[in-house]
């Protein structure tokens, strides 16, 4: 099943690339019991790597949260859902990433 999921993700990335549509993917880390960000599950990391290998832009959500002025516990309402500060940290970083990648030459026109 895991390989089937990666194959399906690669197919989505290939179709997006064929159409000239940038694909941005990311996986939000959980807030760990000690108040830090929990590491991504190895399968989630493998999925992101497969998508990156297929041309998707990987958004590092953990890095966005780590760069926030607030500590991780202030960015989450619970172990999954963001506070306003968490949404702002992710949104600001995602906006910067989109500005960098949206107009890159690979996405300037669809493949024919």
**What level of helicity do the residues show?**
40-55%
* Biggest β-sheet description: 2 strands, parallel
H/E series, N to C? HEHEHH
Question: End-to-end span in angstroms?
Answer: 32 Å
**Count of alpha/pi helices:** 4
Give the integer mean of the pLDDT values.
Answer: 88
Sheet/helix structural class: mainly alpha
Outline: flat
Which segments are poorly predicted (pLDDT under 50) over 5 or more consecutive residues?
108-112
How much is the radius of gyration in Å?
A: 16 Å
How much strand?
A: under 5%
Number of strands: 2
Q: How would you write the strand order of the largest sheet? A: 1-2
Quick structural summary:
The protein is mainly α. The protein has helices at residues 2-19, 42-53, 61-66, 84-101, and strands at residues 24-25, 57-58.
Which features does this protein show?
mainly alpha; two-stranded parallel sheet; 112 residues; single chain; 4 helices; disordered C terminus
């Amino acid at each position: 099943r895991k390989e089937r999921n990666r194959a399906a993700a690669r197919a989505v990335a290939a179709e997006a690339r064929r159409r000239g549509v940038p694909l941005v993917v990311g996986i939000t880390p959980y807030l760990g019991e000690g108040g830090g960000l929990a590491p991504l599950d190895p399968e989630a990391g493998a999925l992101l790597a497969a998508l990156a290998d297929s041309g998707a832009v990987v958004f590092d959500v953990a890095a966005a949260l780590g760069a926030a002025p607030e500590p991780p516990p202030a960015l989450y309402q619970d172990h999954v859902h963001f506070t306003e500060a968490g949404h702002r940290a992710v949104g600001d970083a995602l906006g910067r990433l989109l500005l960098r990648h949206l107009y890159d030459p690979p996405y300037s026109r669809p493949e024919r």
